[in-house]
Amino acid sequence: MTSHDTPKADWTTNHFAQANPRGRGQDDVPALLRRVADTIAGLGGVRVGDLVMHNEVTADGMWPSITVYYQREDS
User: Fold this and answer.
1) CA of residue 29 relative to chain centroid, distance
2) What is the DSSP letter of 35?
3) Which of 19, 23, 71, 75: disulfide with 65, CB 3.0–4.6 Å?
4) What is this structure's pTM?
């Protein structure tokens, strides 16, 4: 069997990105992590596959965001 013959798996990966509100406190990483944790908990039964943190430079300073990739447990 070659790689071209490998059956394709059906995968569905969902994602969301989250940041603190722009302005004062936008660079507060602990607050961002709490916000992301609360959002994940609110999703119910999910399996998180990856978390990626990004930093954008704005006139107000660094503005981190986190993208979360996940799958529903029932899928």
Assistant:
1) 14
2) H
3) 19
4) 0.81
